[in-house]
Specification:
The complex is a heterodimer of chains A (111) and B (114). With 111 residues, chain A is an all-beta fold. Helices cover 0% and strands 45% of the residues of chain A. Chain A has no helices and nine strands. In chain A, strands 1-9-8-3-4 form a five-stranded mixed β-sheet, with no helix packed on it. Chain A has a four-stranded antiparallel β-sheet with strand order 2-7-6-5, with no helix packed on it. The mean pLDDT of chain A is 91. Chain B contains no helices and eleven strands. In chain B, strands 2, 4, 5, 6, 9, 10 and 11 form a seven-stranded mixed β-sheet that branches. In chain B, strands 1-3-8-7 form a four-stranded antiparallel β-sheet, with no helix packed on it. The mean pLDDT of chain B is 93. Classes of the chains: A mainly beta (111), B mainly beta (114).
Amino acid sequence: DAKTTQPNSMESNEEEPVHLPCNHSTISGTDYIHWYRQLPSQGPEYVIHGLTSNVNNRMASLAIAEDRKSSTLILHRATLRDAAVYYCILRDRTGANNLFFGTGTRLTVIP
Amino acid sequence: KAGVTQTPRYLIKTRGQQVTLSCSPISGHRSVSWYQQTPGQGLQFLFEYFSETQRNKGNFPGRFSGRQFSNSRSEMNVSTLELGDSALYLCASSLGAGRDYGYTFGSGTRLTVV
């Protein structure tokens, strides 16, 4: 499984933007970058995914570096409901349709 | 539309017993995966089914098994339960297989083995 590196924890003030980084220096050309989050006492929730270009959806934006060795999940205005563990996951071309969850980044939102 | 439904939500079993957990995917989703979550090991992949066929299996002993029915509903079974099997078991479904699809997770079944 391709590996990603994320900070263990981050803090953000409510209603401010949050930039969650992820390093994936061994990414291959066809690996997709996926982000999931897990709120307390819930199963993981899909957030966003991309391949090369930046992506936007109603939940967040995904900024992918030009060399694809890193990416950033952007929450435009953090709310208390965004407090969760965020996982950056690479999905590779082997056809193994499983998600390899690392330790993720625990985001704390301060009111 | 209804999400991924897992039953039961909570379960207490005795060591040595066996248990069956159920997962109903989102309507139209053909891929169902199972994960185990524990405080020590985090989220770990168990297995994945697509159109009733197991396509991939994680690194778990043979006591863990599963199956998928023609309506895409899935069950996982754990035989000869051990204390270390206490965990949150999560099911996830996806419209298709492949790395361009996202997964929708259920809320999980909390299994406690005593």
